[in-house]
Structures are given as C-alpha cells and as structure tokens.
Amino acid sequence: MFGAFPSAVYAQLPSFPFDIRSLIQQADRRTLRERADELITKRNDYAGAIPCLEKWLSAVPGDAEAAMLLSTCYDSVGRTADARLAMNLALADGLKTREQADRDFPPLFHKQVRWGRSRVLYPAVMKKGEQYRLVLLLHGNGHTPEFMLSWAKTLGLDKAIFICPEAPYMKVRETVTSQRERYSAAGESLGMPDSLFGEIIDLSAEWYHDVAMDAMQRLPVARNLKPIIVGFSQGGFYAHVLATRHPEAYASIVSICASMYTAGHVTEKYDRLRTYGVDALVLHGTKDDVVPLQTGELIHSAMEAARVQHVYMPFDGGHWPSAEATVMIRRWMIEHDR
C-alpha cells in the first residue's frame, strides 16, 4: 500500500550480539515485547518502546502485532517514513500468517451470539414530558457510529434520539492501516465464502433490529412511535432489509446513497412496506463514484412497481449527503413527528 517492501524494515534493524552469561545475570527477565507493552500501556512512552520493539523484531521478525506497535510508536515521534515501512511489514506478515493458517488448518464458519456496542445521540436539551422518537442510524462500510452521529448532529432535531450500532464485523486491515476502528456488516475480514453472504446479511440485519427493539425499551423514547431507520451506503441497504423483514416495527426509511445486493432479496419484498404503510425517502448523489446512481434508480423503480409511498431525490453530489440532501432529510424527519 505504501510502495515499499517489508524487507526494507529488516535492513534497517540493527543486529545484536547474544551473550548467555549476561542473560543469566539479568534481573529483569521480561521479554522485550513485554517491556514495550508496559512502556506503551502504563507510561504512554512510545519513544522508549521503540528500541525494545526493534530488538524484538530482529529476533522475531514474523510478529505482525509487534510490527504494528512499532509503526504506532514511530508515528507518535514523527518518524512517518519508518511508520509506513513497519506497517507494511505488519500487513505482509499478517497476510502470510492468514494464508498459511488457511492452508494448514482449513477454516469452518459458525453462527455466533455475542455482545455488541452502539452509541447514542440525545437532543441538546431534554424536556420533561416530551415525546422523543427513536431513530436507528446505520453507518456505511468501513465507518463508525461516531462518524454518522457527527453528521446527525447537523440535522438539529430536538425531538429525536439517535442510536447507531457498530456493524458486527471489524475490518482488520483498514483498522490497522488507519489506526482507527473500521466496521462492516459484510464480514469481509473473516474470508467467508460467497455462499454464506445471504446468511451474513440475515445475521447482521437481526443484530441491527435487536438494537432498535432493545433501545425502544431502554431509552426515553415514545413507545407509541415506531422508529425511523436512516442508513448511509451499506447502512442504507440494511435500512431496506430491516424495513422489508420487519415492516410492522418501523415507520419510515431514509436511505442515502444506498448499496443493494441481490442476496438480500429486498426489492421483491417491497409490497410489505405498502401493506404496513412504511414510506421512504431515497436519496442518491448524481456523481456518486462508489455506489452508482443507477442503484438509486433501481430502488426507485422497484418501489414504484410495488406502489410504495416514497420520494426519490437525486442530489448534486457524490457518495455523501450534500447540504441540500441534509435539509431534505431534516424536513422529512420533522414531517414525520407531526
């Protein structure tokens, strides 16, 4: 990714003579890796951890996690070029380890029930006796709840409580390279076969739905007002999945630059939205180079064919809601609170 070979990192690491006598006499018997971990976690001493990790990697060059830590340490002291080399090493070793493990021990995949995390955005001022509507906000592939909630703040809605769950799968490589958490609801990092994609969609959708239903019980929202789903990109796709699978539970959909996958079997279930009176605001950027405008047109056509009450708004912009689109979303949300 950074245009350098991992071997360049090895070439820069110094060699160290081995002396068994000094090792026997050494009072501190912790490994260099353990010392580096302690310097980072307990003292926040990234500069001090660098020589420990350099020596450790000269002895254990296949430790991808140590290479990633070294990259973080280099970056913290302004050694950007070295940080990129160490990150390349971490990625290369991690990929080799994964490929070798798959060859030696073929993987099996199993359904899993586990705890997950979401984040909540409350109105700036909570008023006693006010009825607040729950908004389930779904982020895009490789994003985080904080990213979407920061945008939701700009809507300035004082009668809505937003809850944004993390997509259930961490994107490991993107998380490592950016040094920030990145999530997806597609499970790419696990290397699962395409034949499981439909089940991945099922499980991710149920996780999102469970979050919404749990929030209806735990947050100070009006239980007589059904939640609205707002989703961006991959989250926009899941907004359609949730509404077509649980149309009795939701009031409306707002999808922004939504992707669409045939494995989700969404368009053939749009008649359920009409049956339960779920309407939709579908927005898509005319210059979107991530999810093409044709996807928005497809959603619009399928909803028209199913006679779903909806508004389709192509906006002048790319793969993110423009100011015009954001104003339209705000109006839509306010209209649904009347």
UniProtKB/TrEMBL annotation:
Keywords, comma-separated and alphabetical: Hydrolase, Signal
Organism taxonomic ancestry: Bacteria, Pseudomonadati, Candidatus Kapaibacteriota, Candidatus Kapaibacteriia, Candidatus Kapaibacteriales
Protein name per the record: Phospholipase/carboxylesterase/thioesterase domain-containing protein
SUPFAM superfamilies: alpha/beta-Hydrolases (SSF53474), TPR-like (SSF48452)
Any Pfam family matching the protein: Abhydrolase_2
Superkingdom in the source lineage: Bacteria
Domain Phospholipase/carboxylesterase/thioesterase: 127-308
GO molecular function: hydrolase activity
